[in-house]
Write a structure and sequence with these properties.
Number of domains: 2
Radius of gyration: 20 Å
Structural class: alpha/beta
CATH superfamily of the largest domain: Resolvase, N-terminal catalytic domain
Distance between the termini: 55 Å
Number of helices: 7
CATH class of the largest domain: Alpha Beta
Strand order of the largest sheet: 2-1-3-4
């Protein structure tokens, strides 16, 4: 059994690695080490996530998928959530999260083919379905409130759209000019490669002008 940690942030500007240390500590508290990390900045509302699919593909039967919160996996519509569960169940992968105590038993499973394991899987599946439904509703509620707020701001002539983080982009540009690599900049600023590539493209266009 290997533990594979999945780290996800909703936008390109967020740092998905912020939960890494807490998951390492959680695994150690239960006497385990994390075998691999899979990190991406993609919305949890979509099933098409390359790193999540790579995690599933590389997992062996009975491995554990460790996530900070269930909504890191499950802001999906019901059809997509059912598809993801089928992929996980095909390899008997267990989802474990610090926020879901019933899932912790998977870290100390001693009766993997017997009655205890069947009960564990049934209870955890029910809890996961409930948390997935809550995560999806929360996502849809926030999107609706955001849409209403934008509509009101537009009606009042106050909507400016999402503004770029000028200060962070300036920091990225400065580090690029001094020869730092993308990985070094990510480590220093905790930003995404997408942001670094965007700033690098602006620099090239500016130099070519």
């Amino acid at each position: 059994m290997f533990i594979r940690a999945y780290l996800r942030a909703s936008t390109q500007e967020q740092n998905a690695d912020r939960a890494k240390e807490s998951l390492i500590q959680f695994a150690e508290q239960h006497g385990h080490r994390i075998a691999a990390f899979y990190t991406e900045n993609i919305s949890g509302a979509t099933l098409h996530r390359p790193e999540l699919m790579r995690l599933i593909a590389e997992s062996g039967e009975g491995d554990i998928v460790l996530v900070e919160q269930i909504d890191r996996l499950a802001r999906l519509k019901q059809k997509d959530w059912d598809t993801l569960k089928q992929k996980l169940n095909a390899k008997r992968l267990s989802i474990v999260s610090p926020e879901l105590p019933t899932s912790w038993l998977a870290l100390d499973r001693k009766d993997e083919t017997g009655f205890t394991d069947s009960i564990l899987q049934a209870v955890n599946s029910m809890m996961l379905d409930m948390l997935a439904a809550v995560a999806r509703k929360d996502y849809e509620d926030r999107r609706r409130r955001q849409s209403q707020g934008i509509g009101k701001a537009k009606a009042e002539g106050k909507y400016r759209g999402r503004q770029p983080d000028i200060k962070r982009r300036q920091h990225v540009a400065s580090l690029l000019r001094t020869g730092h690599s993308y990985s070094e900049i990510q480590e220093i600023l905790g930003c995404s490669r997408h942001l670094i590539a965007s700033v690098a493209k602006e620099q090239r266009q500016s130099e070519a002008a």
